[in-house]
Request: fold
Amino acid sequence: MRSNIVNMLSPQFSFKPNFLFASLLAAGLISPSAYAIEQTTDTTAKAPLHVLDTIVVTGTRSEKKLIDSPIRTEIISEDELKRTNAITLKDALENIPGILLREIHGKSGYEISLQGLSSDQVLILIDGLPLAASTSSTVDLDQYLIGGIEHIEVVKGAASAQYGSSAMGGVINIITKKVQDGVSISGQIDIGSYGKQNADGKNTSINNHHQKISIEAANANLKGRIIADQFTNDGFAVEPDAYPRQGDEQKRQQYAVYGAWQASDQVMLWADFNEYKEKDHQRSLNFVPPFYLKQHKIEDIERQRFSAGSQFDLMNTAKVDLKAVHETYDSTSTQTLDGYLSALRNSKQENNHFSSQLTFPKWHKQNWHLGYDWHEEKLEQSNNGKFEMQGGSVKRDRHEFYIQNDFNLVANLDAVIGWRFQNDDDFGDHNAFKLSTKYRFYEQNDLLADLRLSYGQGYRVPNLKERFYSFDHSHLGYIVIGNPNLKPESSDSYQLGLSLVQNERWNADFNLFWNDVKDLIQTDYDNATTLNGITQYSYNNVAKAETKGFESSVKWNLTPYFSLNGAYTYTEAKDKTTNTLLTRRPKHIARLGADYALNDQVDLTFRTRYQSDEYGDSANQHSSPSWITFDSQVDYRINKYISAFAGIDNIFNEQRDFSAAFDYRPISGRYTYMGLRFNWMK
Reply:
């Protein structure tokens, strides 16, 4: 009977029967050597054991078995998202080894860092199409609800040969769910509390509400889906009776409509519309000598995203994949001091992207891809009716051509070689090259051993904000002026990895990395000027940097019902110009997890995260303390349609000292939640 526990958490409540690989997927730490487990639709009978190779697309821009991919790819599965009750993309990513999440400066939200490279250098994709940067340069991971996600693929290191600018540090690709034949309705309702830090100061009150529902229907030719996802947070405060709120009051809504037409075995057309809305309230104190004034900021955000595509199989001679996205991102920020309007900022962004790829049939153990991408960005921003962009509205576009070959000319040796040419309307021509190889040097007695070696060139064209934005903070004594003469950043990325898999017993992954960055864009403090007591800064290509380190992850199936996973990352990120360590890059990051099937109905999950201290200033004089958090969740399967769950995040209430300028420990303290998931399928 215990084997029925595997039916608890999947979309059809059919968890994977092979418990080792189910736990590997659920751990969210899958290495390139892991396998996916086939689901069954019968939730009452024992599921047969079918172990299939996971199919990934991000590393090579084409479907490839994860175990065979020369480009190291890590996966966050849907099971892991449920085990940790992830609601936003930030929640989904926080248990991946080596990923660093940190607050976006000047607003509520989170950005990502991979292998010591910043969020501006990491590309976020949805089904291979770019997601608009919510700050004109950085994607806010909290501004994407994950109700429609099947899994997430993470590629670290330079990927500009595959995806162009902004991918010099890596790629996060959100893969949305495929609509299954038949009719299904699924959803979730949950509530949460920060205890004594609830906005109303009452320990037992409900502070957060979350609801989502998905309706799907499909037959042989037509597929459709509607998703609605909403999250409401009343905010929290260390002292609820005081005016400031350390956690913002927020309401987030996301709606998606998807449709596809399978005209024949050779032709498929699809379209997807996604709308995101957010209202965010911040309350803080602003020191204007000699008084502290009550500051209140309301931000209204709306993102509309329309994407469409088609796939053609040209009589078994080639495959054509065409897709495009049109996305607008509008925000209005109203800020008051003691009830008087101090800033009214309006920002409008538009992103258009078209991607095409021609894939030829395999020929002499080679698989060639040719492609063309076009990308256009527009940005307009004003404050109190005055344009903050030099010239008012600014835009840029680029054209990119790429060629890639996946080949296996020597036994046990797989390789990917790729090259991309970019022509930017402002920066001219740029090239990027990548070569990745995987050699299976041992395969015997259920043990596989793979060695991976990768070299990639990366580049990032300066964004519109860095080039044209006038950030006026005169009331605080400074102004930051964009520099239209910036030149692109570039990098050389080296990755060397070893992957080991022993059938159903254990899995290990080790990786060395080194990223050498040139012309790093930073605020130029050395050439700042002062006029009438106001210091004026600008951006410049002032630095060279390198990031290097070691990543490792291990998963072990102790019994058919109990598995452990762990990961450790060491990163050294240095400014080579000043010979100081880059800020907000902890040297040590560790993850631990455990999954236990207690009986037929109860499943337990534990997650632990650790980060060492990190410098907060470029002179390396001030550092933030190290920290560790513990999360847990229990899931109870009521019947084949409904399961209940409850959990505690940050069990021991690890939280920063908000009066300390350089304390980057978690913002929120202990958080308790409970809820119900349901699924009906016909």
